Amino acid sequence: MGNLVVVGFDDPHQAEEVRLKLQKLQSEGLLDLADVVVAVKDETGRVKLHHAGNLVDDTAVFQVFCGSLANLILANATVGAASGALADVGITDRFMKELATVLIPSRSALFVLTRRPTPDKDRLLEELKGLGGRIFMTWLSHEDQTRLQAALDASKSAAP
């Protein structure tokens, strides 16, 4: 079963940088991404969604799902109310309010949908070390979420 992770960033370009890193990790076989969507709120308050494009040929259903989910979340974040469809996937009013705070102008969010768990969690966490961001929502277990947030918060290790 796949996972959805939504991470907020203080910088408008940081979500895109992490998206590129995730696509690199997919090309190395470390991730099986179904879709990745970057949301950036500009200075005027307008939210723009950037889809990763075709990650693999059979991603159309996943892309529609993740893109639609991102649109639903962001539309509802502005009014602060979770619709029935959002509540069905665990997105609450509290989550909406938290997301609205991170998506102030010049900030970004990353929506990542994977098809299945990574075969090497430890290596993945090492690759994600120090990328920053705050997890707002995930379908990961509490333990995996804690490990992922710790990796994002960690200092990058020195290159050999």
Notable traits:
160 residues; alpha+beta; 6 helices; 5 strands; globular
Helix-strand blueprint:
Blueprint: E1 4-9, H1 14-27, E2 33-41, E3 47-51, H2 60-79, H3 84-88, H4 93-102, E4 107-114, H5 121-128, E5 134-138, H6 142-153
Antiparallel strand pairs: 1-4, 1-5, 2-3, 2-4
Helix pairs in contact: 2-4
Can you describe this structure?
With 160 residues, this protein is α+β, with helices and mostly antiparallel strands. It is 43% helix and 21% strand. The chain has a 5-stranded antiparallel β-sheet with strand order 3-2-4-1-5, sandwiched between helices. The protein starts with a strand and ends in a 7-residue tail after the last helix.
Cα-to-Cα separation, first versus last residue: 36 Å
Question: What proportion of the residues is helical, as a percent range?
Answer: 40-55%
Report the uncertain regions: 54-66, 78-83
Task: Determine the structural class based on helices, strands and strand pairing.
Answer: alpha+beta
- Give me the Rg, rounded: 15 Å
Q: Note the main sheet.
A: 5 strands, antiparallel
Tell me the strand percentage band. Answer: 15-25%
Task: Name the helix and strand elements from N-terminus to C-terminus, one letter apiece.
Answer: EHEEHHHEHEH
Number of strands: 5
Write out the strand line-up for the largest beta sheet, numbering strands in chain order.
3-2-4-1-5
Q: Let me know the average pLDDT.
A: 74
Helical region count?
A: 6
| Principal-axes shape call | globular
